[in-house]
Design a protein that fits this description.
The complex is a heterodimer of chains A (317) and B (507). By secondary structure, chain A is mainly alpha-helical. Chain A contains 13 helices and no strands. In chain A, α5 (98-133) packs across α8 (182-211) and α8 (182-211) crosses α10. Chain A is globular. Chain A starts with a helix and ends in a 7-residue tail after the last helix. With 507 residues, chain B is an alpha+beta fold. Helix content of chain B is 30%, strand content 23%. Chain B contains 14 helices and 21 strands. Chain B has a ten-stranded mixed sheet with strand order 8-9-10-1-11-19-12-18-16-17, with helices on both faces. Chain B has a four-stranded antiparallel sheet with strand order 4-5-7-6, covered by helices on one side. Chain B is globular, with a radius of gyration of 24 Å. The chains are: A mainly alpha (317), B alpha+beta (507).
Chain lengths: 317, 507
């Protein structure tokens, strides 16, 4: 099999997976929204008009406008029918096209996720390698203690502490918002520190394992210097679990950083999804869940490809 | 989809540095908790109006006095059923589209067809006259001009809608025009140099929605924000000692109140509602939770509503023994666990509230404690606020705790009429009706004669105070932090405007 065929096969497989994910996620999120207690028309009216303006008459108007009293299968069929034409519909609360909202918010979420992962890798890789090369040494023990500490602090509290130090006292970075690259620093650092707390240990363990392996002994025996052994063999072998782990982190970051987004007033998709669920904005929930599902598929594909690039054993020559 | 997404990520990445370059020191940064995600005046009008992007036919100053906006004058026919609003000439929207009777009529008709304030006026038609807009009503409603000052009756340009009539842009006539909109977090505005009125001094402003009170306080402290609205008590206290930041608390016509289902067998007798009221330690709640001791609600309408607040009414009292005596009069006796019992029924009730205003669940917990003192068992349900009108509609509500804004429009009669008129209201009386109040309110709505109104208002406030269909708890203070470099800041108790057009930088 040629490498290009293998690549193509991976793409086709993930493409099929994407279609299945789209349908399942759409149907399941629809079912979950239907199963929630409370009258959707009231919730949507509340989300739209706010507590000063919302009343039972507004809820009735919303019910009539959106056809919420139609049977569920008719509503679901409408959504699936539109989806086939790549139309995610309009937000039930804001009236704007779902695709526009998702495009804006996902862009910012990806930016923040990338910032966080880069920050975490900049910290975790050097720290993890240094600790892994001398397991049980003072650095290893110190970083373990630091990792536990950072992991134990909620992201929200860590964010506020960083803001107090770097924004309010030192005035190095802004507190919140998303105007310039400087706004990316503190939220990235907040998330990056939390991620690095775990990933530096993953790096460290991978390095310890590689260092203890027979192939490393072989490399040294065949005459490679300690430095070259680490660079050529240890890093490459240790990279596999780390890349996979970073992929998992990426997925977590894109959907799960609601608190950090809120603290830093960052217009991300996690925050938007939570609001959509509260507001019973079914179209937004389905669209967002669908997008996140597809991103998982894409991330898996990227991780597959990256691992294939790092590990020559899977490739045929 | 993927292409759009890539484009959006790239755009997000690329606009970051460029936005920073244009972000010079002259931009006024406004930070508040409210997110803006829609182009629809019915949904986002409150923010569009506050940022002075779109305007109303009728404007109001910070005392609530009406003044001309996009209409220069207005008058009602002798029978009070036809209102004519004469429109200002020579006004253009931000994109150059002329403002005319057709544009105003379309915008107001749209507002009328949607849930909103115009439903209170029994409008039967809105039509375009010669340089004017004509409203026809089913019955006289003197406060119609006040409704046209509300955030949902702002006038967007005809070009703010797509082919299906859905709003898709924020184009108005106001002193500021939108330069960037990132829903739900921010709106950037720039001075509209073609504005019909006095040109603002500041050139640019930026609105950022920051949901967490900690974030807002920190932004004020670091100087990232120039004017910050709605601070939590600890942030307010802390900012009081920060140089270069001035804090103000302005009383506003919003009140935390309890809605009691007077149709429920426990509460049909006014003495039961009085007992509930007397067992509330308002001073304690105002001191410990909302932290403005002077804002313990002595009556329903706060002093900020000067025409409706009656300084002569005796303040609602805190009297546990009195409350116990009233309940005993009603036949309640303490059971084994201290909870009152009558006819084998325990005095156990459910209170519905919501977390959007963080003080509400805290006040609910305080009430739970206070009412236990007199033998009432209170269960608290913190959920979506729509549970309150839903519970009103299906009759399952016992007691609800929420914040009601009587300053939605400069003249509150529309809101009061909706809350206490015939049949009560979703956010007002439940299972309680008083013919005298209903009559007085419809008389107030029908006349603009101040003396006649005052007599009827006194009647309404007196009856509400004695009968307590709503039990007021605390009044609100609007807390604001202002950068000391900013001059001409006027905090509007009606919250219609951030007052950007009157601000300037201290040179």
């Amino acid at each position: 099999m040629k490498p290009s065929n293998a690549f193509l096969a991976a793409l086709v497989q993930r493409g099929l997976q994407a279609v299945i994910v789209a349908v399942i996620v759409g149907v399941v999120s629809f079912a979950m929204m239907q199963a929630l207690p409370g009258d959707a028309a009231y919730r949507i009216a509340a989300g739209r008009y706010g507590y000063d303006m919302m009343d039972a008459a507004a809820a009735d108007a919303v019910r009539a406008e959106l056809g919420l009293d139609r049977p569920w299968f008719s509503q679901l069929a409408d959504w699936l029918g539109a989806l086939v034409q790549f139309d995610l519909g309009r937000s039930l609360v804001y009236g704007t096209p779902v695709i526009d909202e998702i495009a804006t918010q996902l862009g910012f979420s990806l930016l923040l996720a990338a910032g966080a992962v880069v920050t975490s890798l900049l910290i975790a890789i050097p720290v993890g390698i240094a600790a892994g090369l001398r397991p049980g040494g003072w650095l290893d023990r110190l970083t373990l203690a630091m990792s536990i500490f950072l992991r134990a602090i909620p992201a929200f509290a860590l964010g506020v502490v960083l803001v107090l130090v770097f924004a309010v006292q030192l005035k190095m970075f802004p507190v919140a918002g998303f105007r310039g690259p400087e706004h990316l620093v503190l939220p990235s650092l907040t998330l990056g520190l939390g991620l690095a707390a775990v990933s530096n240990r993953v790096v460290r363990d991978a390095v310890v394992q590689s260092m203890a392996s027979e192939w490393r002994l072989f490399a040294r025996t065949k005459g490679l210097s300690a430095r070259l052994t680490v660079i050529r063999h240890v890093v490459r072998n240790a990279a596999l679990p780390v890349v996979t782990y970073v992929g998992v982190q990426m997925a977590y970051l894109i959907e799960g950083v609601v608190i950090v987004e809120t603290v830093f007033a960052w217009p991300g998709i996690g925050h938007a999804l939570v609001h959509a669920i509260f507001g019973r904005d079914i179209a937004m929930v389905q669209g967002t869940a669908l997008t996140l599902g597809l991103i998982y598929v894409a991330l898996n594909l990227l991780i597959d490809l990256a691992c294939r690039g790092i590990d020559p054993r899977g490739r045929s020559t | 989809m993927l292409k759009r997404l890539c484009a959006a990520t790239l755009a997000a990445a690329l606009t970051l540095p460029t936005a920073a370059n244009s972000d010079d020191a002259k931009t006024v940064t406004v930070v508040a908790p409210w997110e803006v995600a829609s182009y629809d005046p019915a949904v986002s009008g409150f923010a569009i109006q506050k940022l002075q992007i779109m305007e109303n036919l009728v404007d109001a100053d910070e005392t609530g006095a009406l003044r001309p906006g996009l209409a220069t004058s207005w008058e009602a026919s002798v029978d009070g059923l036809t209102w004519t609003f004469v429109l200002r000439g020579g006004v253009v929207f931000h994109d150059g589209t002329p403002f005319d009777a057709a544009a105003a009529t379309n915008a107001l008709t749209r507002a009328w067809k949607q849930p909103g304030v115009l439903s209170k006026a029994h409008v039967t038609g809105i039509s375009a006259g010669d340089g004017s807009v004509v409203f026809t009503l089913e019955q006289p409603f003197a406060a119609l001009p006040a409704l046209l000052a509300h955030a949902t009756t702002i006038v967007p340009s005809p070009t703010s809608f797509d082919a299906e009539g859905k709003p898709n842009a924020l184009i108005g006539t106001g002193p500021f025009k939108v330069s960037a909109f990132t829903p739900p977090q921010s709106i950037d505005v720039a001075r509209n140099d073609a504005y019909w009125g006095k040109a603002p001094a500041i050139e640019k402003a930026s609105y950022l929605a920051a949901g967490r009170a900690e974030t807002r306080a920190l932004m004020a402290e670091s100087g990232d924000a120039d004017i910050v609205f709605t601070l939590d008590p600890s942030g307010y206290a802390r900012l009081g000692s920060v140089d270069k930041v001035k804090t103000v608390a302005v009383p506003i016509p919003r009140v935390v109140t309890l809605k009691v289902n007077a149709g429920h067998p426990f509460f049909t007798d006014p003495r039961a509602r009085q007992a509930l009221s007397m067992s509330i330690n308002r001073a304690g709640i105002a001191t410990a939770i909302t932290r403005f001791p002077e804002a313990a609600a002595a009556q329903l309408f706060p002093p900020a509503l000067n025409k409706w607040h009656d300084p002569d009414l005796p303040a609602l009292s805190f009297d546990i023994e009195g409350a116990k005596a009233l309940l005993a009069d009603l036949g309640w006796t303490a059971g084994d666990d201290g909870i009152l019992v009558k006819d084998d029924k325990r005095f156990s009730i459910l209170l519905r509230t919501f977390p959007d205003r963080p003080e509400l669940p805290l006040i609910a917990a305080a009430l739970q404690d206070m009412w236990k003192e007199v033998g009432i068992e209170l269960e608290v349900s913190v959920a979506n606020y729509s549970e309150i009108p839903a519970g009103h509609r299906d009759g399952t509500l016992h007691v609800a705790l929420y914040a009601r804004n009587y300053g939605l429009t400069p003249d509150p009669v529309g809101t009061v009429l909706q809350d206490f008129g015939k049949g009560g209201g979703d956010w007002g009386a439940m299972g309680w009706e008083n013919a005298g109040v209903a009559k007085a309110l419809s008389d107030i709505a029908a006349t603009s004669d101040d003396a006649a109104r005052a007599a009827n208002i006194a009647k309404v406030t007196g009856i509400l105070h004695a009968e307590l269909p709503l039990i007021p708890v605390v009044w609100y203070q609007h807390t604001v932090a202002i950068s000391s470099g900013l001059k001409g800041v006027v905090i509007d108790p009606l919250q219609r405007s951030y007052g950007l057009s009157g601000m300037s930088w201290d040179e």
